[in-house]
Amino acid sequence: MIVRNEAQTLDQCLRLARPHVDEIVVIDTGSTDGTQAIARSYADVIEEIEWPNSFAVARNYSFDRASGDFIMVLDGDEYLPEPLHWSRIRAALTRPHLAAILLPIKNLMRGNQIVAADRFWQERIFVNDPSLRYEGRVHNQIREAVVAYAQRTGAQILKLEAEVVHTGYALEPADMKKKYAARIDLLRAEFEQPRSPQYQAYYGYQLGLVYFVLERYPEAAAIFNQLDYGQLSPENAFYTRLLATQTALKLEEASMALFHANAMLSIDRTEPIGFFTTGLALLLARQIGDGMLMLLEAYNMNEAHQHAARFALNPEVLLGLLARLCERLNLPRHAAAFHNLKAQPACEARTIKALIASLQTSIVSAELEGARA
What we know:
Blueprint: E1 2-3, H1 10-17, E2 25-28, H2 35-40, E3 45-48, H3 55-64, E4 70-72, E5 78-79, H4 83-92, E6 98-108, E7 115-127, H5 143-153, E8 156-159, E9 164-166, H6 173-181, H7 184-192, H8 197-213, H9 217-224, H10 234-250, H11 254-267, H12 272-284, H13 288-305, E10 311-313, H14 315-328, H15 332-343, H16 349-372
Parallel strand pairs: 1-2, 2-3, 6-8, 6-9
Antiparallel strand pairs: 4-7, 5-9, 6-7, 7-10
C-alpha cells in the first residue's frame, strides 16, 4: 500500500486484511492526520518517504519492500468485506503458473446520485517479479507489464470474483474537487507528453474526467471532442463517451450530447446508464417522447440486470426524475404514482412494471395523436 492522509478509512482496510495476508507493507508519502500510527498497529513494514511526484514510483517502491511470493495492491480507502472472498484468493494462489489476478472493484457513490455504484475489473494481485512494475505518474498502469510477463512465461491471468469496495468516490462535492484538483498537473503532463497514442487517449480521458468533476465543462468538452476513441479499451471508451455526453448536457449542447450518446450506445447497449443519458440528451433536443421512452427503458434494464451492469442506477433517484418529468408533461396521474413508489420502502416489481407500461402507452398514444393532428 501507498497512503497519505487515510486516517478515516485505513483501519477498516487493514483490520479486514490482516487475518488473511502474510505481510502488510505500507509506504506513507507525507500524512499529517495520524495515518502512520494506524499503519504501525497492523503493518509488518512501514516507511515514510517524501512524495516522489509519481504514483508509479511510490507503488514500485512498496513492491521492492515486499517479501511474499505474490503482491496484492489495496488503497487506504478500499476494503474486502467478505471472508469468503479472501478464501477464494488464497485458493487461487495455489494454482501453478499464475501471473496475475483481476479483481472486481466496486466504486461506491454518494446516495443522492443517479449512479449508485461503478463496478469494473482491475489487476490487483501479481507474482512478485521485478519485471512487474507500474508506469505513469498518476492513474498508474501495470497491464502491459502483466500481459508481457504472461506471454513470456506462459503464466495465467485469472479473473476472480472477490470484490474490493472503494469508498473514495462517495465524497461530498467539495471533497471530490479537492481530491481531483491535486492530480490535474500530473495528468496534463502525461496527456501532453504521451509515451504512445494509447497512453495519450487514456490520460486524455482521465484529464477530461478531472475537468468534469471540477465543473470546468468547456475544458472537458475540448478534451472529449479531440480524443482518438479507437485507442481506448471498449470499457474506457464507453465511460469516456458517457462523460462526454454528460459534459454536453451540462453545456446544454443537444447535438453534441446526442453525438456522444449514439457513439456510447454503439459500444455497449447493455448498460442502463447508456439509455438514461441518451434519454436526457433526447429531452434536451426536445424529442420528448423518445427521451421518456429511453428513461423508462433504463429503469427496466436496471431492475433486470442490476447485478450484471457496471453502472448500477439508483432506483429512487430515477423514480423521482420520472415523477418530475411527468409533472412537466401534464401527466399528473403518472407523476403521483411515481412519487408514491419513490416514498415506499419496498414495492412489488410488477406494480412498477405496470406503471411503466401504462406510461409508455400514454406517450406513444400522445405521439400518434400529435402525428394525426
